[in-house]
Structure formats: C-alpha cells, structure tokens
Design a protein that fits this description.
With 210 residues, the protein is α/β, with parallel strands linked by helices. Helices cover 45% and strands 16% of the residues.
Length: 210
C-alpha cells in the first residue's frame, strides 16, 4: 500500500532556531528605531514568510530591513541550530513504517536547505520547500502542492496557527506540537500532541497500521 507523505513544518517543529531569528529581527528593528519585541511576539509575526511579514513590519523600507535581518541571521543560524526533543526518533519511526517525509516551511528555501544539509537530513525528505520556492507561501496551499508533487498527503505536523491554516487550505489534517514559549493557538488543530513522540502512532493509527 502506498503511504501518503507526512509533511512537517521546520522551525519550532523539528528544529529550534527561534533565538537566532528573534535576535536578528531585533537588530533590524533597532536599526529602524523600533522597540524590541517579546519572544512570543516575534514568533507570532514571523510565522509568515518574510515577503508577507516584513512589508507589514517595516513598510516601504522592508527590503532594507530584510537584508539586515538575513545578514544577522546567516552569521549564526547554522552554528546555533538545534534539534527539538524527539525529532530524530519521530522521523526514524515514520521512515521505518514506510511513510515518505517532506518539509514545508516559511523559512527562506535557501536557508532551510542549508540547515537540512548541516544536520545530514537532506536525503530524509522527498522535498524541502521554503519561502519563495512556490508562487505563494504558507498558509497558502501552493508550497504543500509543490512538496507533494502530485502524491497523496494526509498529515501536516507543525506548531502554529499558520500550520493549521495551511493544512486546512491544502485539504490535509493538522497535528500540532506546541513550541515552548510560543504564542497560544487561536485555532483548533485536528490533533494536539504533547510531543513529537506521539506523531508516528497518530499517523499509523489514522491509516490502520498496528
């Protein structure tokens, strides 16, 4: 039986690079004389891709702010990259059960693929789709369709309202593992899990696999 692709968000779901994102955004905001944000506020605003969130944050100067952000982020993101608890074991179990894996992220596709390469994970995923790779970014369904490439999908695993909206727009089920310190969810996921350890059992059960 052909297994559907299991899609994952990246930041806050499989890996933790939010402290670097928060720091880089703070540098950009400071250069524009804007007050710093609390960590959860950064997560709430940057859950959308840069091409969506930066014009709202910086107006007509958003491209210059984006350049500042990415310069600060690029300097540290690979060295600071950390796996979230249970991420590797979750992927191992899904692979062992025959489920193809893919990533759909609002992180720039260039940086997403660099991070996957640093972890030695590039070959684990059928697709690594980031911001700017598709016509539109999450929560639009376009990056999901790109990641699936015509194959069936069922679950999208993430940590935020953006991931829930993306799953709904793509006709998938959402499974959310909240990120510690992130903003509270305002939408109901199809499955709310305490940890990534619950994901393989959830996926297997939904497909009648013992």
């Amino acid at each position: 039986m052909t297994r559907p692709v299991v899609l994952f968000d990246w930041d806050g779901t499989l890996v933790d690079n939010w402290p670097v994102i928060h720091e880089a955004l703070g540098i950009a905001r400071e250069s524009f004389g804007l007050p710093p944000w609390a960590f959860a506020e950064t997560m709430r605003h940057v859950s959308r891709s840069g091409r969506e969130s930066f014009p709202k944050m910086f107006g007509e100067e958003w491209r210059r702010a984006s350049d500042m952000f990415y310069a600060a982020f690029e300097a540290r993101h690979l060295d600071a990259l950390m796996l979230l608890p249970g991420a590797e074991a979750c992927l191992d179990r899904l692979e062992a059960a025959g489920f193809p894996l893919a990533v759909v992220s609002n992180k720039s596709g260039l940086f997403l693929r660099r991070e996957a390469g640093r972890l030695g994970w590039t070959g684990r995923f059928e697709a690594l789709v980031g911001a700017g790779d598709a016509r539109l970014d999450k929560p639009d369904a376009a990056p999901v369709r790109m990641a699936l490439g015509g194959r069936p999908g069922f679950w999208l695993v993430g940590d935020s309202d953006t991931d829930i909206r993306t799953a709904r727009n793509a006709g998938l089920r959402s499974a959310v593992v909240p990120y510690a310190g992130g903003p509270a969810l305002s939408l109901n996921a199809d499955a709310l899990c305490d940890s990534l350890a619950a994901i393989p059992d959830l996926v297997a059960f939904s497909h009648g696999i013992n």
